[in-house]
Design goal:
Helix content is 76%, strand content 0%. By secondary structure, the protein is mainly α. It folds into three domains: 8-91, no CATH class; 99-216; 336-459, Alpha Horseshoe (Serine Threonine Protein Phosphatase 5, Tetratricopeptide repeat), CATH 1.25.40.
Length: 459
């Protein structure tokens, strides 16, 4: 080091990362001081900014932990750099070369019965590869809207395959921990989508433990924070969900990952929406939409626009809801997923109702209720029934209100609502001709059954 700056030799050796922790520790100490000249020299000899920032962020984080443990400053930097260096080694370690394309291995798995797929994933080392784990995870995530049980099965396969994978094939112990954390995170998310919230929480705890044993990869941490935020929303822990989503957002901002930042913002907006903070949700969604890369994830744009329409409906701003809905109508048509189409039809019915097109709204809502009934989604059937009841109250169709109540009563019982809610539903028949009292009862019933939701927002 000359004049307080690392020499060219120091920087070149720093780039090559040989096992000289003491020298590299001195370089890190200097770079942590934000020396612009040395950072410029590093860029000139091939060290990209994002890689340098990740290294220094890891080092600085470890330094803070070491200092709090009472280590000396020099020792802290050296220890911090030692771990950062090991993490970088893990990032660039080679993984096992594939003799067979992962798609061909997937086709072989898919030809088997479900139970045999799990057994083969556990016993056949040909499948125990990071590429297969990621392919299974991606396919699981892709079917989250229309086949939640199949999503869970594929996520289970990914988890089993990751647990069978060897460190040598994954690129070392740290990378293996990352891989398993990734798989457990997807598994936890699939459990959440299927409404198995306690198991989802346990899976995410396991994913977090594995992440802490890994490389410290920031995108992995952000992804797990997003999954945890979604789970917290399902659990009605909205403040926690918002905090977790914001933490994920900050990581993506630091990394310059604008599309993933949009994903975290949509996650945060959904938590705000379900907590009743519609204005905040609108603001967040309007910031997220321009950041979305449609080619990378068209579902994310659909989710953002769909939830934005819902916010405007709930805010009693149907004209703005209609404007967004009209702009995204073609986007909705691109997805053949029948569950998405049901939710769109439901939303269209609400929008038509608020715009005063009552008979058209009735048609859309009846179709949505029938579709949810066929799928066995009883919570959705109950809520659409209440939407229909409110519509018929406004239309002064008293007999239709009573018919809706009779049809909805067994569904409310199946959901397990308390006696007060069930009595209020039956009372709706008696006040169907008194608009304000009937609408107040319907709002009360919506609030009482909302906790029974499996909480599957379009996301």
């Amino acid at each position: 080091m000359s004049n307080g700056h690392p020499s060219s030799e120091d920087l070149n050796l720093f780039l090559s990362r040989p096992a000289n922790t003491a020298r590299n520790g001195r370089v890190v100490r200097h770079l942590l001081a934000e020396c612009p000249d040395c950072r410029k020299r590093l860029r000139q000899i091939g060290w990209q900014d994002d890689r340098l920032e990740r290294l220094l962020r890891l080092s600085n984080s470890e330094l803070s932990d070491s200092d709090s443990a009472g280590l000396s400053s020099a020792a802290s930097y050296d220890q911090a750099f030692g771990k950062a260096e090991r993490s970088l080694d893990a990032f660039f370690a080679p993984v096992r070369h594939l003799d067979v394309a992962p798609e061909k291995l997937m086709a072989e798995i898919e030809s088997l019965a479900p139970d045999e797929q799990i057994r083969r994933a556990r016993s056949d080392p040909r499948f125990a590869l990071p590429q297969v784990v990621h392919l299974l995870s991606d396919r699981s995530h892709a079917i989250r809207y229309h086949a939640p049980e199949d999503m869970l099965h594929l996520a289970t396969l990914a988890r089993v395959t990751a647990e069978t994978c060897l460190a040598a094939d994954a690129g070392g112990e740290l990378r293996l921990a990352d891989l398993r954390s990734w798989a457990w995170g997807h598994y936890g998310n699939a459990l959440r989508v299927c409404g198995r919230l306690r198991e989802a929480e346990e899976a995410l705890a396991r994913a977090t433990t594995l992440r802490e044993e890994g490389t410290g990869d920031p995108p992995l941490r952000a992804r797990l924070l997003e999954v945890a935020a979604s789970l917290s929303t399902f659990q009605r822990r909205f403040e926690a969900a918002i905090s977790l989503a914001e933490e994920a957002s900050q990581i993506y901002r630091d990394l310059g990952e604008t599309h993933m930042l949009a994903s975290a913002l949509v996650n945060k907006a959904i938590a705000e929406l379900y907590s009743g903070e519609m204005e905040s949700a609108v603001d967040i969604l309007n910031r997220a939409v321009p950041l979305i890369d449609y080619e990378t994830d068209p579902h994310l744009l659909l989710a953002a626009c769909h939830n934005l329409v819902r916010c405007y409906i709930d805010l009693d701003r149907p004209e703005q809801a209609l404007s967004i809905y009209s702009e995204t109508r073609e986007l909705y048509k691109e997805f053949g997923d029948s569950l998405i189409q049901l939710r769109v039809g439901w939303q269209e019915g609400q929008l038509l109702r608020d715009l005063g097109h009552l008979r058209a709204a009735e048609t859309s809502l009846l179709q949505a209720r029938s579709g949810f009934m066929e799928r066995g989604l009883m919570y959705e059937v109950a809520v659409v029934s209440l939407d229909l009841a409110a519509l018929y109250v406004k239309m002064r169709s008293i007999e239709e209100v009573r018919q809706i109540v009779v049809a909805a009563a067994p569904i409310f019982r199946a959901l397990g609502v308390d006696r007060e809610a069930l009595a209020s539903l039956l009372q709706l028949q008696q006040v169907a001709d008194q608009e304000q009292e009937a609408l107040d009862l319907i709002r009360f019933l919506n609030a009482r059954i909302e906790p029974f939701s499996q909480r599957r927002p379009l996301r």
